[in-house]
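User: Let's play a game. I give you a shape written as tokens, and you guess the letters that built it. Ready? Here's round one.
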């Protein structure tokens, strides 16, 4: 195919499916879709959420020998895990509660046609195994059935998750990945499409103007540069939403950077998807808060244990020194089944005291070690501040009883 014919065919496809844009990556994705359409090879479309992945399987189906057969688009992430096997592979009557009739499932009704499995990375592992069997043999067994059924379905899948990472974490089958990935198609994020962003804004603004009989909003030159610099974490879907907001809410029809700034975040460099910190740039503020809370609770538990162990030690010493009272007489509130482990307590108590001293005494050489008295006071103050002085809520946040909270407030001189 000559370059002119190729360009002409791409333009025809764009007009047919209302695809706006001329960036090289988008053109390449459409070109691959047209080339693979006449075959029955499985296709895996990869791209961020909102880039328009759903267009590609439609192009593939409409330009394939199956174009006169059925086409189904299924969002795998929206189907509950308990029913997804039934949805895909069907079920027989009585196979589970609510199965009042037989159901052929998508693989049954789409025989000879095309199935688009969106968010395929969300499939449960058990369903992945069944899908792999269909892809390899064309065979499947409906839920509750005993006989094998055959189907001839073209599979096009899409995902916005990192499949290789999901494989390494045991969330996706590697053999299924390679089976789906016969032909990979990468859809570019909007931030990499340059002037396509301005063209898409113009299209969405025109659609709003025609739908609601209003004047179309237009970007001035500086605003055009601004939307091309922004990273668009929600991609085309986010751009459409913002264009609609501006069309409805902006009294001015010529959009300047000042107006645009009210509708998009000020940080133009962030993608707002996953923040990746450079080495040494990580903030441990949240981790420090968690550590403070753990140490605060641990200190309280150790102190309570020390008091209880001290009382038990004193009573044991009284028994061992010749007291004629039995241990059960000394501890009337304790059930007799708890008396057996009392003998080894004497050597344990000093070790526990030493352990606490080693754990919590602040070494002179470590200037950043925590002083737990100050730490406990600080945690109480923060908990009370966050709960606007409500002691009950503060105690619940810290994981201690109201009584313990009041005792520590008094201990730290915070009682009002």
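Assistant: Ready! My guess for every position:
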């Amino acid at each position: 195919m000559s370059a002119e014919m190729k360009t002409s065919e791409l333009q025809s496809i764009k007009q047919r499916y209302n695809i706006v844009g001329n960036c090289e990556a988008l053109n390449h994705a459409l070109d691959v879709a047209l080339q693979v359409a006449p075959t029955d090879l499985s296709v895996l479309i990869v791209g961020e959420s909102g880039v328009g992945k759903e267009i590609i399987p439609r192009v593939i189906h409409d330009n394939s020998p199956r174009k006169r057969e059925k086409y189904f688009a299924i969002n795998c992430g929206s189907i509950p895990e308990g029913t997804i096997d039934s949805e895909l592979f069907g079920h027989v009557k009585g196979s589970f509660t609510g199965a009042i009739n037989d159901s052929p499932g998508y693989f049954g009704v789409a025989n000879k046609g095309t199935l688009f499995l969106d968010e395929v990375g969300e499939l449960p592992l058990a369903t992945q195994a069944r899908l792999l069997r269909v892809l390899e043999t064309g065979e499947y067994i409906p839920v509750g059935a005993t006989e094998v059924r055959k189907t001839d379905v073209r599979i096009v899948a899409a995902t916005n998750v990192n499949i290789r990472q999901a494989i390494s974490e045991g969330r996706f089958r590697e053999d299924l990945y390679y089976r789906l990935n016969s032909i990979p198609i990468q859809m570019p994020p909007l931030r990499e499409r340059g002037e396509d962003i301005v063209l898409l804004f113009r299209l969405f603004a025109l659609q709003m103007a025609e739908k609601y009989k209003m004047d179309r909003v237009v970007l001035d030159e500086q605003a055009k540069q601004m939307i091309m610099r922004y990273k668009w974490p929600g991609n085309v879907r986010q751009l459409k939403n913002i264009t609609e907001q501006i069309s409805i809410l902006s009294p001015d029809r010529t959009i300047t950077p000042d107006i645009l700034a009210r509708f998009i975040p000020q940080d133009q460099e962030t993608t707002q998807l996953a923040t990746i910190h450079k080495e040494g740039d990580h903030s441990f503020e949240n981790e420090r808060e968690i550590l403070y809370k753990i140490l605060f609770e641990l200190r309280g538990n150790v102190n309570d244990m020390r008091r209880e162990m001290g009382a038990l030690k004193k009573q044991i010493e009284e028994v061992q020194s010749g007291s004629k009272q039995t241990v059960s007489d000394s501890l009337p509130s304790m059930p007799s089944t708890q008396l057996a482990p009392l003998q080894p307590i004497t050597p344990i108590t000093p070790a526990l005291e030493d352990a606490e001293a080693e754990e919590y005494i602040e070494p002179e050489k470590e200037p950043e070690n925590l002083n737990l008295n100050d730490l406990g006071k600080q945690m109480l103050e923060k908990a009370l501040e966050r709960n606007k002085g409500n002691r009950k809520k503060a105690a619940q946040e810290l994981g201690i009883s109201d009584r313990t909270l009041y005792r520590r407030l008094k201990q730290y001189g915070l009682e009002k």
